[in-house]
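Write out the bound-state structure for adenosine monophosphate.
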Amino acid sequence: MKQTERLQPTRTGIRRAAALLRDGALVAFPTETVYGLGADATDDTAVAKVFEAKGRPSFNPLIVHVPTLADAEAIGEIPEAAWAFLEDGWPEGLTLVAPLRADSKLSLLVTAGQRTVALRVPASPVAQDLLTAFDGPVAAPSANPSGRISPTCADHVLSGLDGRIAAVLDGGETPGGLESAILAFDEAGPIVLREGVFQVSEDLRRKTALDDGPGALPAPGMLKSHYAPQGTLRMNVTTPDPGEWFIGFGPHRNADANLSASGDLREAAANLFALLHQADKKDRIAVAPVPNTGLGRAINDRLSRAAAPRGADF
Ligand code: AMP
Ligand code: MG
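---
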């Protein structure tokens, strides 16, 4: 890829960053917590690029960034108990998990095919300007290669991702330094899924996911049979058995569906969750081998969860 552009948060820079996002390119931007690696959250291919650029070995769901509470409400149904946190506007460094609306238009990769979505309205003026200029939801994990420390300035972003992303919007040091806190809700109130910049007061802190031990409210992507189709699924199949619904990768004459006929991993990632949805209606599914490199690792990780026997959750 070309060298990563370093954009200033001027009108020109913001406009350029928004145009790149609209083109399906990746743009890192500052928030009040750390720098996020942004992609158009409605564009499967753009979201696949996020996992590719970060070298993420699994498709864990991404946080969706929007400029206003109204935009958040258009994507997720804000849980009743969450409103107590939103009385004075969206607090800094807070991410809320909400049921996903059917007409959200989000890429299935963003939510890893789940029916919930993590939403955040960043307070940072540069993030606000970018989101307003882009005028759509932006999926953004932290702008660092998988396994590395979250970036708090544009130089950190470039040291990890230079040449792998289109641009970084340089807004100086981020004030938070820590990630956003992630809260989910059930009837009884908030559950802290991840500690972060936003602090939940002790009286509201009913329990954390960890307090209840495994199984209480596991972080998505942790379940072995997470996002399993109802039928059985076999991986690394070159010749499907009669009656199996066969998902190909690369040229296959007999495939019922194909992750990518040209063998392109980014295209395969972009198609994965839609195909798993389709596969949900089949009794027996077979999937062609997918090379275990780059995005192929995350694809194989998700397929192996889909292939895991039911009830083998932990
Ligand atoms: P990062 O990608 O580093 O910004 O981290 C995103 C975090 O948000 C991960 O820990 C995800 O598991 C969490 N997350 C994203 N979407 C959801 C969701 N729908 N439900 C629960 N946690 C989520
Ligand atoms: Mg991160």
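---
The longest strand covers residues 35-40.
The chain is about 25% helix and 20% strand.
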